[in-house]
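ugh ok fine here u go
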Amino acid sequence: MSGERRATLQDRVPQARLYKAWNIPGITERDFTLLDLYSDVLAGGKNSRLYKRLVYTDQLATSVGAGMGPFELGSQLTVDVMVKPGVSVELAERVLDEELGRLLREEVADPRIGLVTLTKVDVSPDLGNARVFWSAAPEAGEPSEEVAERTGQGLQHAASFLRRRLAEELPLRRVPELHFRHDPSLALGSETLSLLREIRDDEER
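structure:
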């Protein structure tokens, strides 16, 4: 389904509720992971951008939430807003769209960072430093060493930004400095699976 679809349902309830949904790539696609992170920043709790704007600042809503409907062929990203009594749904939707656009413009998107899996996080007792271990599986035909070097550079470049975002989202008295360390386990596992598939294909010929 493409294009915009709208529907209005009437019921005897004290508050109006606004739902917005987008068709997005399937759960196995890289963009699904990025949009999952995007939904958390947008409406994942009381410190999220939409909650702060709609509930605290503008006082247009009493609650805001976001969710992912994960499926293999195609998924959905949904945002729902419980509109405050006396506030028009149209105004709440306009503010929601403003925050969507602002987040897309302002958040950092580094092309060096692909699909990354965090394998372990070690935080010092005083919360001063955190070693974040990550792994990234290379795409077909791409050397794992090049992927590791490129991704590591992108993560280190984004460390300050990520620390600021964590400070906004997490109720911690101190947010540690982030130090990214490569964990080659995922890439090695991917290479092992590729070799096993080659062996199986050779035996079947």
